[in-house]
Write a structure and sequence with these properties.
The chain has helices at about 15-25, 25-35, 50-55, 65-70, 85-95, 105-120, 140-145, 160-170, 175-185, 195, 200-215, 235-240, 305-320, 355-365, 395-405; strands spanning about 5-10, 35-45, 60, 75-80, 100, 125, 150-155, 245-255, 260-270, 280-290, 290-300, 340-350, 370-375, 380-390, 390-395, 410-420. It has 15 helices and 16 strands. The two termini are about 50 Å apart. About 35% of the residues lie in helices and about 25% in strands. The strands form 2 sheets. Strands 7, 8, 9, 10, 11, 12, 13, 14, 15 and 16 form a 10-stranded mixed sheet that branches. Helix 1 (about 15-25) crosses helix 13 (about 305-320), helix 5 runs parallel beside helix 6 and helix 6 (about 105-120) packs parallel to helix 11. It is elongated and about 80 Å long.
């Protein structure tokens, strides 16, 4: 016997319209697989004419309270994004006895603990698969498939825009600016791509995954975030020379009770599975103590992949309650300067004797040893010098960079990129 679930959609943009269309087109398929008939009862949006044109069979309103207060609506899909009124919508819907589905990664990353407290308080549920990874079932994997595991680490390519840009820079030898322009033309990047290229979007996603994995709320303002706009074709070329590719990674690990969480460009070995993830695709690698490495790949954004995850949540919530889990307090976030890593350093120096010895002297006195050096001959006064180090404390590395940058023979800003060799887990 089938169960009818009435849905109220708040926000009829890219994702909201995708959800409506997916339900309309795949109604029977969803019903056969799940035993649930999904019916969009109402849609809230400020562009009423747009909604009426594309969803003529549905009640339309400008007031979100019409949906949260409707006793016949079972599940509210909050798909407007941002902090307010999204936070008020979700809390009001939960307190009025409704389950909620959202794709709002910013809200969950920054106010997730508050929302989850409301879930526990009301006994209702929230689904947010669509907030991380688009159509990739990251949340379901963590909450269901790996529920018996201690999560040792999470490493992911979590933003399709930046991955597309880095792929085109690597494969087509394009500049950052040209790759970004191509991404915008193809719809992989917004007109204002700031959140993507500066790493904020990936930061929201890794914060959500870390919250679920480690059962701690995370002060988002403490998450170190770096974007990709300073990566140049020469860095990608030199990374290739030493057997690496550059990806923007979100990383989270619990080390001695402190959460090492961060987003930044990272050099990873060419043979690692994450190195092969191209263009707008995303990938997340979970390391469980029982399962070992588990990797998920797929399109991380877009109307239909994200809508697919929203539908998955709706069906899950239609059959049973789903708790996000109880937090055991706030995470103690590791200070960036305490992190241990290997480093790639690129600098332009005068082509003169004794310069390398001065640079290596600075590194040596700060307990940093050199793994490899590349200096290609160039018929110019200044030449590129590439150094890859062994593991070192980041505070020592930053001290070295400041000192080396002050030398008169160094031209332009020094570029440094962290290197991740994945010594444990998947190779």
């Amino acid at each position: 016997m089938r169960t009818t679930i009435n849905i109220g959609i708040i926000g009829f943009g890219t994702v909201g319209s995708g959800v409506y269309n997916l339900i309309k087109e795949n109604f029977e398929t969803i019903a056969i697989r799940s035993g649930v008939e999904l019916k969009v009862r109402a849609i809230c949006d400020l562009e009423l004419s747009h909604v009426r044109e594309n969803a003529p069979d549905v009640f339309v309103t400008e007031s979100w309270s019409d949906i949260t207060s409707d006793p016949d609506i079972d599940i509210v899909a909050e798909l407007i994004g941002g902090t307010e009124p999204a936070l008020s919508i979700i809390k009001d819907a939960l307190r009025k006895g409704k389950n909620v589905v959202t794709a709002n990664k910013k809200l969950l990353a920054e106010r997730g603990a508050e929302i989850f407290e409301t879930v526990v308080e009301t006994g209702n549920s929230i689904g947010f698969e669509a907030a991380v990874g688009g159509g990739i079932p990251c949340i379901l994997t963590l909450k269901k498939g790996m529920v018996g595991n201690q999560i040792r680490s999470i490493v992911g390519i979590l933003n399709g825009t930046t991955n597309y840009i880095l792929t085109r820079m690597a494969e087509d030898a394009l500049t950052f600016a040209d790759s970004l322009k191509n991404a915008q033309t193809l719809g992989f990047a917004e007109a204002d791509p700031t959140f993507d290229i500066e790493g904020v979007d990936a930061g929201h996603k890794i914060a959500i995954l870390a919250m679920l994995s480690y059962g701690r709320s995370i002060p988002f303002e403490l998450v170190p975030i770096e974007g990709i706009k300073n990566i140049s074709p020469i860095d990608i070329s030199y990374a290739k020379d030493v057997g690496y590719v550059i990806k923007l990674l979100g990383i989270a690990k619990l080390i001695n009770g402190k959460l090492d969480i961060r987003v930044h460009p990272t050099m990873i070995p060419k043979g690692h599975p994450l190195a092969s993830i191209r263009d707008e695709f995303n990938s997340v690698l979970f390391e469980g103590d029982m399962t070992g490495p588990v990797i998920l790949n797929g399109k991380g954004a877009g109307s239909l992949p994200t809508a697919s995850s929203v539908i998955s949540d709706i069906v899950q919530l239609s059959s049973k309650r789903d708790y996000p889990g109880k937090f055991i307090g706030k995470a103690e976030v590791m200070a960036p300067e305490d992190r241990i890593s290997r480093y790639y350093i690129r600098l332009y120096t005068e082509d003169s004797p004794g310069i390398l010895s001065q640079i290596s002297g600075v590194l040596g006195k700060n307990n940093i040893s050199i793994a490899s050096v590349i200096q290609k001959e160039v018929d110019e006064k200044f030449v590129p010098l590439i150094i890859v180090t062994h593991e070192a404390r980041e505070s020592d590395m930053l001290k070295c960079i400041d000192e080396i940058q002050s030398f008169s023979f160094v031209k332009e800003r020094i570029v440094f990129i962290r290197v991740e060799d994945f010594k444990k887990g998947m190779k």
